[in-house]
């Protein structure tokens, strides 16, 4: 079995993001970039399936500029067999990303595609669902447990009412939730080994993907600053202040 | 006694004089647990003038004062067990001034270490003294103990970042030492007397701390090491090849405690020692150099296995393996030693120390870890459940006496960074000469002629 895993690079979860002064986006110069946490979980799950003997090959996919190589090397060091780097200077929106994945699926014929449920930069939570629809295959989103047997994926999903267990026939698209697993650390000897693992570089333009980037960014703005606390003299003052704010 | 309290209440508003038993217990002790707290009251001044008034009042009433910061100390320096008045700096927590040209922050003594670090970061700068209790400890306490921690190998101790300090002496006088100057060759630098003074010379009320550039893209690795010689070899190699900001080590026993408390195992390989290395990666070449260093260490047999953080989250998880040790042992109320020798003497000292513990602590679990790059080891001795606390402390005290002899042989110190307080007081004379201790006593008398400032700590006057 072959598993395709989306492996996006985003601003590190722990970085307090800063809006660019002109409001055109978020500052990324000199900012720590890391794997999208949900994608790390996707890769971890694929590696565990391989370690269990369910899968033979795990291929990670990154879409982005030339310097994405170092990021893909991390995924290879974590354990992926090989990587596909679709090079583009743009930042494709979910529909474009889904169409790109579809092209790669046509080339690679994977049995399973595992994606993060969303990337923590745009929080779109769309690519997996769009890809399943374009591919005409089942989708199981927000997986918190995954088992593969007899050509089927049994997926436990976290839904509002609790846990829902569904079956999906393979090939299928699965998107990962936070509790699916805890990704491993990357071992230093594996970083060395990853240097000789293959990365297929494919020009985005050569894939013949129709751009689906129809969203235009109007403006970015930081959240309003929290105003300072006010000290009140006594309980009566507190009541008066709350009333004044219309909270009582 | 009630007259004394009444006059204290006259000095400060009633809500800033605490006498409830729960408050007396809370403010009367630090992270050591063997000293029963019994202060008379807790005072919460809000200004330098109020601190002065408290000192003058204490002289008049002949009441001892115990300066109190975050009380995260591990030597009993902030313990009040003899009817003292605890002077808590927690209400003096304002950031007074930032100077972008001098690159200094001037703060009141009660500012929490992490708040100072955060304030520096918001200005695009960095306050580099850092340790596990950053979220509770206060800058005044950091200075009074000359706090060290996890970045000493690169950035030194609190003393090295102290540009100026304002103190109230034992006569109520205010001293402004050094006033932020870089150069000031005008005789004795009193500022440095207060670094490590443990509250015995004056109450620290304000400090001007120097800041520096933030580290460039810090990277964290944790590696497994087969033996102590390999650890020292690996240290020498990494220090020569990388801009290190931390080089910390811990034993398999320490790791086991952290893992039992929810830490995340870095890799499956097991080894007697582990090392956490943090370094800056200003460029691609440094990242490569780090990998090459690991490769070399592995070829030499110094390093068995290792991982590298790929995100800030993972970096924090790896740091937790080292920083979580204290917390993972806390419920066992360990007996702590905090010793140092010159880095070059570490292997020889360790061999003697391990032999001593094997002989004298056959039935105790001994967990050790520390800052190998500073020649500083932390040793936590765990009490067997069946043993009474008092017997345990007595037994550990006995062995600590023997540890002092080992330290003397290797030219080391019984307190590397925790201070002397009450816990190390019996051993001070194994490290400092009678002449030195007498000079310290005389100095205390000069700053505190009435003997009201944290008496009984450091030495008996």
From TrEMBL, chain A:
Pfam assignment, any one: ETF
Domain Electron transfer flavoprotein alpha/beta-subunit N-terminal: 23-211
Superkingdom of source: Bacteria
UniProt entry tagged with the keyword DNA repair: no
Matching SMART domains: ETF
UniProt keyword annotations, A-Z: Electron transport, Transport
Membership in a protein family: Belongs to the ETF beta-subunit/FixA family.
PANTHER family in the record: ELECTRON TRANSFER FLAVOPROTEIN BETA-SUBUNIT, ELECTRON TRANSFER FLAVOPROTEIN SUBUNIT BETA
Designated name of the protein: Electron transfer flavoprotein subunit beta
Native organism: Oleiagrimonas soli
Lineage of producing organism: Bacteria, Pseudomonadati, Pseudomonadota, Gammaproteobacteria, Lysobacterales
From TrEMBL, chain B:
Keywords of the record: FAD, Flavoprotein, Oxidoreductase
Database matches in InterPro entries: FAD-bd_oxidored_4_C, FAD-bd_PCMH, FAD-bd_PCMH-like_sf, FAD-bd_PCMH_sub1, FAD-bd_PCMH_sub2, FAD-linked_Oxase-like_C, FAD-oxidored/transferase_4, Oxid_FAD_bind_N
Entry-linked Pfam families: FAD-oxidase_C, FAD_binding_4
Example of a GO biological process term: respiratory electron transport chain
MF terms (GO), sorted A to Z: FAD binding; oxidoreductase activity
Residues spanning the membrane: none
Coiled-coil region: none
Necessary cofactors: FAD
Domain FAD-binding PCMH-type, chain residue ranges per copy: 35-214
UniProt family annotation: Belongs to the FAD-binding oxidoreductase/transferase type 4 family.
PANTHER family: D-2-HYDROXYGLUTARATE DEHYDROGENASE, MITOCHONDRIAL
The protein's name: FAD-linked oxidase
């Amino acid at each position: 079995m072959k598993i395709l895993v989306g492996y996006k690079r985003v601003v590190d979860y722990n970085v307090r993001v800063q809006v660019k002064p002109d409001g055109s986006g978020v500052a990324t110069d000199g900012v720590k970039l890391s794997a999208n946490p949900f994608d790390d979980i996707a890769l971890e799950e694929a590696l565990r399936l391989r370690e269990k003997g369910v899968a033979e090959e795990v291929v990670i996919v990154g879409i982005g500029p030339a310097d994405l190589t170092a990021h893909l090397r991390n995924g290879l060091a974590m354990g992926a067999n090989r990587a596909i780097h679709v090079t583009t200077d743009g930042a494709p929106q979910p529909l474009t990303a889904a169409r790109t994945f579809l092209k790669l699926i046509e080339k690679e014929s994977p049995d399973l595609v595992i994606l993060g449920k969303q990337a923590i930069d745009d929080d779109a939570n769309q690519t997996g669902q769009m890809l399943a629809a374009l591919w005409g295959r089942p989708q199981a989103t927000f997986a918190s447990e995954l088992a593969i047997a007899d050509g089927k994926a049994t997926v436990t999903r976290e839904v509002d009412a609790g846990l829902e267990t569904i079956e999906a026939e393979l090939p299928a698209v699965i998107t990962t939730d936070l509790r699916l697993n805890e990704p491993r650390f990357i071992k230093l000897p594996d970083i060395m080994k990853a240097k000789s693992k293959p990365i297929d570089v494919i020009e985005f333009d050569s894939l013949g993907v129709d751009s689906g980037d129809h969203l235009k960014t109007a403006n970015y703005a930081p959240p309003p600053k929290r105003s300072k606390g006010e000290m009140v003299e006594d309980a009566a003052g507190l009541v008066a202040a709350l009333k004044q704010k219309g909270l009582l | 006694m009630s007259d004394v309290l009444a006059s204290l209440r006259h000095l400060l508003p009633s809500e800033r004089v605490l006498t409830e038993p729960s408050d007396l217990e809370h403010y009367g002790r630090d992270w050591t647990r063997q000293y029963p707290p019994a202060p008379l009251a807790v005072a919460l001044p809000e200004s330098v003038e109020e601190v002065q008034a408290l000192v003058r009042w204490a002289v008049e009433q002949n009441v001892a004062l115990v300066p109190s910061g975050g009380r995260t100390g591990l030597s009993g320096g902030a313990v009040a067990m003899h009817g003292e008045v605890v002077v808590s700096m927690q209400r003096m927590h304002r950031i007074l001034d930032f100077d972008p040209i001098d690159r200094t922050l001037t703060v009141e003594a009660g500012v929490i270490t992490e708040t100072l670090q955060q304030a520096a970061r918001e200005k695009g700068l960095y306050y580099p003294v850092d340790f596990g209790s950053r979220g509770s400890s206060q800058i005044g306490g950091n200075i009074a103990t000359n706090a060290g921690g996890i970045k000493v190998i690169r950035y030194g101790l609190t003393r090295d970042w102290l540009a100026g300090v304002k103190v109230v002496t034992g006569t109520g006088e205010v001293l402004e030492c050094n006033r932020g100057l870089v150069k000031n060759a005008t005789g004795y630098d009193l500022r440095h007397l207060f670094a490590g003074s443990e509250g015995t010379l004056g109450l620290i009320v304000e400090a001007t701390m120097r800041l520096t550039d933030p580290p460039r893209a810090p990277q964290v690795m944790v590696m497994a090491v087969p033996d102590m010689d390999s650890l020292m070899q690996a240290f020498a190699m990494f220090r020569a090849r990388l801009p290190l900001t931390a080089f910390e080590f811990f034993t398999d026993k320490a790791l086991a405690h952290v893992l039992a408390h929810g830490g995340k195992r870095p890799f499956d390989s097991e080894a007697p020692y582990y090392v956490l290395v943090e370094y800056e990666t200003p460029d691609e070449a440094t990242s490569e150099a780090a990998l090459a260093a690991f490769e070399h260490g592995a070829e030499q047999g110094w390093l068995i296995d290792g991982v590298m953080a790929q995100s800030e989250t993972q970096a924090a998880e790896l740091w937790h393996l080292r920083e979580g040790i204290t917390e993972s042992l806390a419920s066992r109320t360990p007996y702590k030693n905090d010793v140092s020798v010159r880095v070059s003497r570490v292997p020889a000292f360790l061999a003697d120390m391990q032999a001593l513990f094997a002989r004298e602590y056959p039935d105790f679990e001994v967990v050790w870890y520390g800052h190998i790059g500073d020649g500083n080891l932390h040793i936590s001795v765990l009490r067997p459940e069946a043993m009474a606390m008092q017997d345990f402390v007595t037994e550990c005290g006995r062995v600590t006496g023997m540890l002092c002899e080992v330290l003397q042989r290797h030219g080391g110190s019984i307190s590397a960074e925790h201070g002397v307080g009450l816990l190390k007081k019996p051993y001070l004379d194994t490290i400092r000469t009678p002449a030195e201790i007498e000079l310290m006593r005389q100095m205390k008398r000069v700053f505190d002629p009435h003997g009201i400032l944290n008496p009984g700590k450091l030495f008996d006057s």
